[in-house]
Amino acid sequence: MSGRSRALLILVAVFSGCRGDVLQRYETSLYTVLREPSPEHTSEHAEFLREAILEAEAEGRKPPPGICIECALYLDRTDRSGEAREFLDRELRYYPESAEIVAVMIRMLAGEALLK
Amino acid sequence: MTASINASGKVCRIGLVVFGALLFGGCVSPDYSFAEKYYEREPRTVVVLPIRNESTDAEASRYFLATIARPFVQRGYYVLPIESTLEVFSREGLNTAGSAWGMKPQLLQKYLGADAALYVTITKWDTSYAVLASNVTVSMDYRLVDCHTGEDLWTARATRTRSSGGSGGGLIGLFVSVVDAAISAAVTDYVPLAAEANTGALQSLPPGAYNERYAEYKKKVTDWRKANPKTEGGSEK
Fold this sequence. Notes:
Low-confidence stretches of chain A: 4-19
Oligomer: heterodimer
Shape of chain B: globular
Largest sheet of chain A: none
Number of helices of chain B: 9
Largest sheet of chain B: 6 strands, mixed
Mean pLDDT of chain A: 85
Shape of chain A: globular
Strand content of chain A: under 5%
Radius of gyration of chain A: 18 Å
Distance between the termini of chain A: 69 Å
Distance between the termini of chain B: 52 Å
């Protein structure tokens, strides 16, 4: 195998394994669900957010701001509200400045008045 | 011979003048007064309000929402999750720009913990057709408001256009151009253009606390102020 072919193979291998920036993937996933908010797309977006968070944590990184709250919202929309609260707690742990919006979301999930 | 020396001397003098202008033109220090005022407020958290849509496409504001968080996060800001805050607004009967934009910014701080509120108006989101070509254009106005004082922190305007069709090539080329223009206009996604426009607009926004250039940029602003002290009346020297 020539050096050129080997270099090409390496490039293909590198880029096929590259899944792109998480925010870019978030943008695409959100756009899909905004364009067609079907139960299937809603569920896919919830799963995408959950996986993006777990992936970031497994790599020792913070998930991007707001993602854990968005995940809680979508888990609630797909009747998995039991898991939602846990993600709100995570957002607060990673980003203390989210305290107010997390409190509002907790009230929303509990069906209480939001803006007290 | 003398004429030739005179001419070359003249060229040298002009060259020196141009060189000097370039050299000293490059030495003019940038004006950081805008960034200084901005950092006095130190906004960290940004809430995006429902988008005002002045374009002819009724769906524009919904699709635009997918593009606005990423550039702010990349610029170093904590953006309140777009869909979650819109859900909150919606449940409070504030789901349109008309209703939500009337809310006092101070209340956004109190209820949602936002330091700054982003108001975006979509002014163009359309396709214009020529005989053999089409132009897809998106255009937005941005206004970031301090939730503590209600004052503008930053404003920007961005437009992006993508053209297609219009190639030559005889009768077949003409046919191909017409089909290409029609197909491109039908399938061209406005969203990547809007994302590009957002990224471009945010280049003028000072980096936020989560941006790796934040400390360096803030130091530049502080150093600039030391080098350009205010006079007693508060004006720039």
